[in-house]
What does this fold into?
Amino acid sequence: MAFRRKAAGYLRCAVVALLLPGVLDAGSGAAGLQPTDPEVIHMFPLGGQPGSRVQIEILGRNLEGAHALWAGTDAIQGRVVRVEPGSARMKEGRKVKDIPGQRVVAAVKIDPGAVRGPHALRLVSAKGVSNEMIFWVVPMPTLQETAEEHGTAKEAQSIAVPSALSGRIAEEGQADFYRFEARPDQELAFEVVEGVQRLWGDLRRAPGFTLELSGPGESWFDAERRVKLGAANTAVFHKFISAYKPRLIHRFAKGGSYTLEVKGEPGAAYQLQVGAPADFPPLVRARGLDKLAANRWRERGFTRRLEPDRLSRLQARSGGSDRQATLAVLEKQLRDLMGLRGEERSSGTAAAGPAAIAPEQEPNDAARQALPVAIPSIVEGSIDFPADVDHFRLELKEARDLAFEIETPERHYPYFNPRIEVFDQAGRELVNNIYKRQASQGMWFWKTAESKMVFSFPESGSYLIRVRDVTRRKGEAGFRYRLGVRPQVPHVGDVVVAEVLNILGREMLDWMIELDRVNLYPGEAKKVNVIISREEGFAGYLAVSVDNLPEGVEVLPGADMGPELGLPQDQGRKEVFAAQDQVVTLLLAVRPDAPPTAAPRWLRFHLRPVQPGRLNRYRKMTGEDPFRPIWEGQMGASIPVARIPMMVLHPAERGPAVSQVLAPSK
Amino acid sequence: MKDRMDRMRTGNRRLGRIGRTLSGSGLCRIGLLIGLLAWPAPLRSAALKTDAESSAAARLLSVRLLPKEVQLRGKGAAQRLLVIGTYSDGLERDLTEASRFSIAEPTLAEIDVRGRVRARSDGRTLLTVQSAGQVLQASVRVRDSAVSRPLRFDRDITRILTKRGCNSTECHGSVTGQGGFKLSKNAAAPREDYGWIVEGGAFHVLTTETGEKAPRVNLEDPARSLLLLKASLAVPHGGGERLEKDSRDYRRMVDWIAGGAVYGSENGARSAPLERVVVTPGQVVLQKGGERQLLVTAHWADGAREDVTSQVRYLSNNPEVVSVGPDGRLTGRHPGETAIQVLAGGQSASATVGVIEAPVAAYPEVPRHNFIDDLVFAKARKFHLVPSALSSDAEFLRRLCLDLTGRLPPVHRVRQFLADPDPQKRTRLIDLLLRTPEFVDHWSWRFYDFLRVISPVYKDWVRRAIAENKPYDQFARERVAAQGFDGPSRHYEDMGGTAVPLPQNAMGEQVRVFLGRRMDCAQCHDHPYESWSQDQFWGLTAFFGRLSNLHPGFPQVDFVIMDDPEGYGTFGKGAKVIHPRTKQEVQPSFLDGSAVPEDRRDDWRLALAEWMTSPENPYFAPAMANRMWGYFFGRGIVDPVDDFRSNNLATHPRLLEALARYFVRSGYDLRSLIRLMVESRTYQLSGEPNPTNRTDRVNYSRALPRPLESEVLLRAISHVSGVTGEDGNFFNVYGKPDLSYIPERDMQPSLLQALHQLAGPTFTAKLSREGGRVDRLLQRNASDEAIIEELYLAALCRFPTEAEQAALKDMIRRRDSRREAVEDLLWAVVNSEQFLNNH
It folds into this structure.
């Protein structure tokens, strides 16, 4: 049976990997069912300057009765001017479709103090709250693309520098050309940003754009010849994949007229930003577009911050792991009393107090130059040049369970990939941060560089830590890192609220679809998955709670078959790199008599570790571990994990019981 | 005239036959016209004479004797002499048999009428030759004349095995051996051969297991040795009789076995190893029917020399051109050029032989531009090929633009260039084109092709390297040793798809691309035709034994290339490079067997890249010089350009060496190498043949027409028609390499292409499209003369001749529709051989 389940897991993995594009195509094209959730497909223009007013056009479906713009901040205020029938062109798979729906015209007012960068906007309609639109507040003057033909370099529309131009791609293969003047030695930044993220199969993504900068070619053959000076591409397929820089920065050796060419998916709107690099907000595409999500705990990832208070923050998510350690000692005493043998639990003793931040001191290129590091501590260093290696020494007076965490604030995958190796005194490598996932027959599926690893040092001694890039060709001042070395703290790691879980599991794909919005009619219920990562051996009880519920909405414990997590592919030294995931199923149930909500409400999801408190009783039973203590708990502090907008819809607006059935498309 | 008719028939066959339904006969006439006038008439044929007639007619200028000094060592040692006459017609002829030989002191050595000296007793004497009224002398030194030279395996027996073909690839030298008995090809691994003979055992390709061992020699009764019983067909032998029982070689084999079947110097035999064998002369020119004798000399490390002319194996690469007898006698069969391979038991050498119809009586002085011309013209002179005249400006302009930029020049540039009286205008044009973005386009495309560039980041890197003229050694190092995510590292992704390529595949491609060698066969066994051993293959492969990648997660694309100390690959747990026969892990080793330097032990691929691109590497610079030569001259000096091997010899080895030296000295400057080539007179020769070089295909004595590659052809048609796009399935018809594999361009014409030229949109709709060149000319009401002129200038970079103008104007005038007539004219032009080729 186990074999069959394993085989089925592999098969599904392979089939999904191979057929995914086809599956997505088929899914988007063959359905006879029409979703009812309000969905914004395009927005135009995509932003404006602080203190300005902008009229925007929103295209989408299920937007009937749209009556409000809902922003996550006071900096942006908007109102719906009118709603009329319309259609949105978009590409799904290889097909370009005109989706029948609505066109909403809205007026947006940008506060003079609005922060530059992306802001979230949602549309509220009779069918609920829409997906997120990204409205870009830019410091430079804004303009729109001309109605004149500008599809070739010769016809390029002239734009000023700096400026933020809003345009859109009407047809498949269309290119928009813009011309600007640059001064000698002027450095300019260029970026094309988009405004709406929507679902494409399993992926939440935005339509991508390519941007190409070209200049005079000085050709003997063709006086009009342009030569490519650089390119950028925002077609994000996967959160990590960034084969191209989304932002293009170029220093012009010669002054003159230069051309920008924008290409993208049909129907999609874009904003082309041109200006001094300092005018641009920090890059937001490190994780696709999800930077707009509320700040939440990030256990892993090379860009999460490692601060001196890291340890205390971990302890805040531990549910009293110190207390658990104390209880472990008590348990041991009880076992001894009862004459029972049992495994000793690893001591997750966490030293109190902040970790000191110590700068790396060169030279430390050789093992003999290794700098001593304390526990806990954070070392700041950099791989300054190709093949640079930094060494650190760790002195342990006893066996310890330690965690190593690394942050690369400036450059990260695929450019800087730190390799951390730990050696014993004999020069044997004990552990490194390259996670080699294994499948059957000892095969590796793939390798990743991990930003965190845990290791149990079996004995005291002097240990060498080596940090370098996985390559020997890369290294520069921007290859900065923070290496944290600390005791292990059993705690709650990442928590994700999702509506769909991919069968392949989070560890492999991270393709679960996070919950974006909830729109329910009275009498309906929605299943919600809360995926909780248990880190560093955290074994405590956990309670999930949701508050700020609209009137008539309740949260009920649920049960679901759920996905198979922890497939055989996710093996290797998983215990070093991965948390233990656990899925909690909840049901958001709306009472039949619940009143509709006038505006979206933020559902606030919390997690509360349950601290062991009183030893109520214990049992001596048969079996391998006959000791059974029963501890009664105490509710710990609440940990906020997510907030999601929800609306209870008016029953009168309800359509057919399940969905509207459309005639098959010809 | 015959030439012209031939060309017309072949070059304009489609024009003559197919035409278009609207105007078949008119097109036919246009085709004929272009065909007739496109290729200038050849020079008047010279009267040809036979070798005997030529010899009689030519004046003997000098006579020389080979070798100049005779060394005889050991009992019965002998040396063959050659007497060579040099004639006023530029040919050398063998006078040995017509010469008289004498020895000053006959007690020391004897000489027969065929010029063979044999040792008698120790001492020094003089040898005299009388030939064609001249007297020549050579010193003779005899040593150890009473000492019988003990036979040894590594020298004497391997030579017999080679001479008799036992270790040829058709016999036991094949990759699998024959009947379990394996010999290395041409005794490349004599130690192993010795083991199979003296110790016995059966050879298996995939394992070192040999089974039960039974020696193939019988020390007690040498004549009963299996080795001899098989070779003499005393027992059944699939290879037939290889050693006659009474032959000298048979007796020597028996003596060797009787003497204990020793390998080397165990019995006191001379221990100095054989350094090389030399063939004299290395370059031979024969008139058809003429004969020459080769002399093969073994050179030992202690300075001793030995005549082994009758003890080696001769192979003609093209017996249709030159045949060679077992004793090294050459006979010219048909005009052409080929190589004679000489295999001498672990060593090999070769001689280049050209066969000419007749010598050129008064060879003209040919001007030179640079050292390329010196080396090309010297050989042409020796082979009696008179280089064609310098190309016309129009010919040069078109050729240069196509070669440097892959496109035709605009009409106004053609007019400008043709009218420019500056004698330096060709050099100026070369400099100018080397700086154009179109040069970068074209050469980036060329590099995309041979480097299999697919991913956009990789493309950008290559393009930037071309634009910046990155030194080629640096370029190669960056590619071979690439790590990380940027341009050069992407080629490992392009090669491997969703995984890094296997080490053996990665190595094979790098060696082929940068060293011009194909080692792939040695993966499973010693290379069947080359000296690459399986050990060398896996030694080089092991440099890629850590090639690995880092993923961002799923899906497995856009990975980071790295070297993982734990082993190679995406798949496989810490996979190591394992030798398929020994099943042992292989450590990286260079071709000479040396290991990775200490300071590179953590960076194997960088070590390999540095070795590959070192100025001392004998393969790197010649491989690229040869590849570049191939682009400009239609064939490599070694051809195919990535197939250097001992039986695929360079047509101009000294030229290749010189180009490689130049390339290294220039700092591996590709543009400098390109400039050198296109500035040479050799490159700038006309395509017009003369009677001496009409059949020449390999000596660059004239420009050979080269079919335009599909991408270039399409661009040229777009240029002439003034219409881009509408190309339908052009590349399906004309081909485009599949970069998933090492690309091989198929330049052979096909029936599909002929049909496409007849009715494909590229050759029909594109030419008559509104807004195109024809349309614009007609719209502005250009005269017939102006239209003809512009089409000629656009397509052929030359003005039409008066005859062409007159005939074409007449044709247009007599057609009902002027538009159709002009469209047909353009159709005929782009279908002409002049247009379809770079010439």
User: Anything to note?
Assistant: Chain B is about 35% helix and 15% strand. Confidence is low (pLDDT under 50) at residues 1-26, 35-48 of chain B.
